[in-house]
Amino acid sequence: MEKKYNLIILGASGFTGKYVVKEALKFLNTPYSPLTTLALAGRNPTKLTQALSWASHPHPPPPIPILTADTTDPQSLLHLCSQTNLILNCVGPFRVYGEPVVAACVESGCDYLDICGEPEFMERMEAVYGEKAAEKGCLVVSACGFDSVPAELGLMFNSRQWVAPAVPNRVEAYLSLESEKRLVGNFGTFESAVLGVANMEKLQELRRSRPRRARPVIPGPAPPKGAMIEHQKKVGLWAVKLPSADSVVVRRTLSILAENPRGLPGVNESAEHIQKRETFWSMVKPAHFGVEIGSKSLLGIFRFITVGMSIGLLSRTAIGRWLLLKFPSVFSLGWFRKKGPTDDEVRSASFKMWFVGQGFSNSSHVSQGNIKPDMEIITRVMGPEIGYLTTSIILLQCALILLSQRDNLPKGGAFPPGIVFGPTDLQERLQENGISFDVISKSAVPV
């Protein structure tokens, strides 16, 4: 059946939601765009109208329908999903508000994308709704924002630079956040981190209750654990491990790839796309993957550690969580505040994500024993501010691909973005919209 709207943005009046609306308006009824009908949804029509005016400025707002829906009202969500091909969910934290939206999408057979960076939510949605989504023929794809598309496509981009007989063993991503003014994050991200740490045991319990995932075969030994603080001279950063969703999401894609070496077939794929998909995945080589957050100064690293320890310790108790969420600016040393960044602070921020891949110049070397990598390839993904601008760009391009290339995508199920969008033209689309992918260097490593 023809649906009333191509897509509906749910939570369009939120901090991130209004930037998603702004990005969507760039592609609404433009030449060759599949986006011809759009609606905004949320609890408060007045705030939605204000968000549309903000996103349209300096032009008058277009006549886009404003729909009322509440995550605590399942019937309102079912009615919402029945009117559209695709829901873009911007209502977080997802562990609190996300499941009713996924349930309504799956029940109505409507595709679902979100900007979640919460591993427990993503894995629980896959466990609870994956099979039904496959039966209903709807895609449930989380992490379609800065969490975790730059990590997924960045790893694949680095991996594809290893031309046979060369093979990667490990790829470490180093994230550098930069700004001409000051870095200020979304309070929702901070809240998600606090609740994620508080519910860590639930995530472990969920993983223990599920079947073991397939493990990709990675040439060579597992990399050493390494020091807590690292000085990565090649990219000019001090760095410390970042407990983000990126590594979890990447590992999930590599696991699915281990089970499906040619990728996931589309619901009604063209012969051309089958060949493109199989060629793409034949060039992606699995590697051990980790993410670190970097700073040009050692002082910046101690600041990261201090904030991480505050969240880690205080999240364990109800009073501690209350303090963190009541005074985010205090406990994050100014990085997060409830009112979020100003438009100027958003415009002045950017990111660089360096992918340092180490491996073997010849895969036959691996069979000769426990040798050290002798080759290094460094690539980089770079773009604007992560929480609002880059996230909105990625989410919209994923949505446009889904609307225009649905037959080439899997029929249904709950998946990470990499396995769904990897063989599409997502990377090229991101490059056309301000997110670059570059090869920095290829060199031999002294053994």
Automatic annotation (TrEMBL):
GO terms for cellular component: lipid droplet; mitochondrion; plasma membrane. GO terms for biological process: glycolipid biosynthetic process. InterPro entries: NAD(P)-bd_dom_sf (IPR036291), Saccharopine_DH-like_oxidrdct (IPR051276), Sacchrp_dh_NADP-bd (IPR005097). It comes from the Eukaryota. Residues 8-140 form the Saccharopine dehydrogenase NADP binding domain. It holds the Pfam family Sacchrp_dh_NADP. Belongs to the saccharopine dehydrogenase family. This is Saccharopine dehydrogenase NADP binding domain-containing protein. It comes from Liquidambar formosana.
